[in-house]
Each structure stands twice: as structure tokens, then as C-alpha cells.
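User: C-alpha cells for Yip1 domain-containing protein, please.
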Amino acid sequence: MTTWVETPADGRGRGPRGIARAWAEVLVRPRRFFTNGVAPGDQAPGLAFAVVVAVIYVSGLLAVQPETILDTSVVPILGDSPGVTMVLVVLVTAVVAAPAGLHLTAAIQTVLLMLTVKDRAGVSETVQVVAYATAPCALAWLPVPAVAAVCTLYGAGLLILGLAVVHETSLLRAIVAGLIPATLVFGIGFRGLWVLASVVG
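Assistant: Done. Predicted C-alpha cells:
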């Protein structure tokens, strides 16, 4: 999880530039990215990518819609200081929530793939697919429900496409295998279900 492949391809370079390139590549040319940019045993870039997306998302929400996170029934205000609480929320997101959520989701996804796809890629590749599929959600914090809805739906679509490409299976099998993880990540984690309900309402 903490090692880098020395010759990354299609956006998988080190540092901020590599993350930015991966973000653009997976949004614009996802099939090419999932074909060339996911390497066996090279989870670190994907983990870093997912953490950056989650931090941007949470920071954006705290900036423009703090009430969605700083609900005292969920996150108590520490020392009557919303600022300190916000910093702590971002740190917990980066250090605990995003990495744990990514690997828990990937574990669930792996089990579902075992039930639906006979010849499949490894766990590492699955972690990377889930991580890179979150790319659109770097913009899901924008206070426009339609934009947030598109971001989460696009992310779910990227997850399905990534599963189909990386595990070399049909879109139908990828949909069956990816439906629950997509709901967990994009419907609940990035609040897609609530956003979609708002748009429909």
C-alpha cells in the first residue's frame, strides 16, 4: 500500500502534479486511464488520490455548507470553537475516514467481485479503481444540487466502468458487482442520495 511503481503511466506520477494529472485523465479519458493507469500492487497513488479528493470535498462543504457537517448531533463543537472543530474534521478525514473508507469499500467490492467475476484482477487494482472513481466528487461540495448530483452519478459510472475495464468483465457484471459499493461511496459517503432527493424534490 505504501510503495510506488517506478514507471507510473497515464497520470500516476508522484506529488501534486501527478494527482492533478490523474484527476484530469480519469475525468476526460476514463477507459484509457483504467487500462493504463492501474498497476498491480501499487495502491499508494490511489490512496493519496482518494485522500486528496475527500479532503477537498470536506473542506469545500465546511466553507460553503458547514451545517451539513457541523451538526451538533453528529460532530460536537469542540470548546465552542467551530474553527478548531473544522480543522479537526479535515484531519480526521485525511488520516482516518478516507483511508479506512477506501479499504473497507474495496474489501466489500472484492467479495462481490468474487461472486460475480471468475477471472479478475487483484485486490490492489480494486482499491485503485474505487479511489480514482471518486475524482468527480472533488467538485461535489459546490452548493448547487444539480452539480453535486452529476458529480456523484459520474463517480458511480466511473466505478462501474473501472471495474469492467480492470477486471475484464461485462458492464452488466460490473453493475451487479459495483452497485452496493457505489451506493456506499457516492450515495452515502458523498451524500449523493440526499442531493438526488433534493434535485428531484
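User: Anything notable?

Assistant: The first helix runs from residue 15 to 28.
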